[in-house]
């Protein structure tokens, strides 16, 4: 029994030694020199997927450490300051149980005044898809009352701008299939459609047609968790190559949005879901069109929440009308039902009056 215990202890010790030797991103996990640098794996080439790297900046007893991120381009979430996919996390102390100092992603460089009294711990993680160039960082230490000398040119070096094109030849949309869709026509759908889409999911598509043409986008089937402001699950459509372009509309509910037309040769589509309640999602198709042949060209809007439920169509916070295809403008099922009811009602009134006149005449 004692031998088995000793063997297990040895294996554990070897495992610990092995895991502590390398950060996971190349280079040592424990940084003990008075100053140094470290970065995500392959930097500045894209880091691998499914990666976890750790660095323990061990300044030594009584020392002060200054940590600076000199570049940062890590896959970020749709909303600012949220890092649901890939992230860099910084902790006070020697491991991730210490007080968190921050979580960083996208091209938001952490503040340059990350100073620690003692050790600092940094964890970088990437998820299973979409990679970016990553980050580079440096640190320096000092003995109080002297402050560490800044080691990098934080703030003077522009962060790498997010490329309009994928950093690799083929980027997955997040919903299966490619993110980049180009050509005269194409289609895409939510993940697992027509089965329910997963929770806490993000998908994106960049549709590009030939120069001089515009994109017409049609949702053939649409069922996305309804909410008055589409703040649970939603489809967002931007009039250009990224979220920096004008937002055409944010959509949820169970009635397909009307046909959407870009002003240029690109549309950017995002599908976000929250952590509860799912529906069957959507399937969509696009066609390239000659702008002279399209009458429903878009108008610039601030933000539109189009919520649809039970056949009704409600537009919220609209500064201007959402883009609509005038050929389908009259196909409001509620309006059609109302007209039909009025016609039937009038017909019955006429019949009743004729019967009454006949009865009075005999
Ligand atoms: Ca990722
Ligand atoms: Ca949901």
UniProtKB/TrEMBL annotation:
Alphabetic keyword roster: Disulfide bond, Glycoprotein, Repeat, Signal
Signal peptide residue numbers: 1-21
Region entry Disordered, spans: 304-336
InterPro entries: CUB_dom, Sperma_CUB_dom_sf
PROSITE patterns, per database record: CUB (PS01180)
Biased composition (Low complexity): 305-319
Domain (CUB): residue spans on this chain: 25-142, 175-289
Keyword Transit peptide attached: no
Name this polypeptide is given: Bone morphogenetic protein 1-like isoform X1
The organism of origin for this protein: Branchiostoma belcheri (Amphioxus)
Organism taxonomic ancestry: Eukaryota, Metazoa, Chordata, Cephalochordata, Leptocardii
């Amino acid at each position: 029994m004692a031998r088995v215990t000793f063997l297990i202890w040895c294996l554990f010790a070897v495992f610990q030694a092995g895991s502590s030797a390398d950060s996971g991103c190349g280079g040592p996990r424990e940084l003990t020199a008075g100053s140094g640098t470290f970065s995500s794996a392959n930097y500045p080439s894209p880091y691998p997927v499914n990666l976890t790297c750790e660095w323990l900046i061990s300044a030594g007893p009584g020392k002060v450490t200054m940590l600076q991120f000199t570049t940062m381009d890590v896959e970020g979430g749709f909303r600012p300051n949220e890092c649901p996919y890939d992230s860099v996390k910084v902790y006070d102390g020697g491991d991730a149980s210490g007080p968190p100092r921050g979580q960083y992603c996208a091209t938001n460089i952490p503040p340059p005044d990350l100073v620690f009294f003692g050790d600092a711990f940094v964890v970088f993680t990437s998820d299973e898809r979409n990679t970016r160039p990553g980050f580079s960082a440096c640190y320096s230490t000092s003995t109080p009352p002297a402050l560490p000398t800044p080691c990098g040119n934080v703030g003077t070096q522009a962060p790498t701008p997010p490329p309009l094109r994928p950093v690799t030849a083929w980027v997955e949309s997040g919903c299966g299939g490619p993110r980049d869709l180009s050509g005269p026509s194409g289609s895409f759908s939510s993940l697992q459609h027509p089965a329910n889409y997963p929770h806490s999911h993000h998908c994106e598509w960049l549709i590009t047609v030939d120069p001089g043409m515009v994109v017409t986008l049609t949702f053939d089937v649409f069922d996305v968790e309804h909410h008055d402001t589409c703040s649970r699950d939603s489809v967002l459509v931007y009039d250009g190559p990224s979220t920096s372009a004008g937002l055409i509309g944010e959509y949820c509910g169970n009635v397909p949005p009307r046909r959407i037309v870009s002003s240029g040769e690109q549309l950017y589509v995002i599908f976000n879901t929250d952590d509860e309640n799912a529906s069957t999602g959507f399937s969509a198709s696009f066609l390239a069109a000659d702008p002279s042949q399209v009458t429903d060209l878009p108008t610039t809007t601030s933000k539109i929440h189009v919520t649809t439920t039970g056949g009704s169509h409600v537009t919220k916070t609209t500064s201007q009308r959402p883009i609509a295809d005038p050929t389908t403008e009259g196909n409001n099922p509620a309006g059609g039902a109302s007209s039909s009811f009025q016609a039937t009602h009038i017909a019955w009134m006429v019949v009743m009056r004729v019967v009454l006149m006949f009865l009075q005449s005999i």
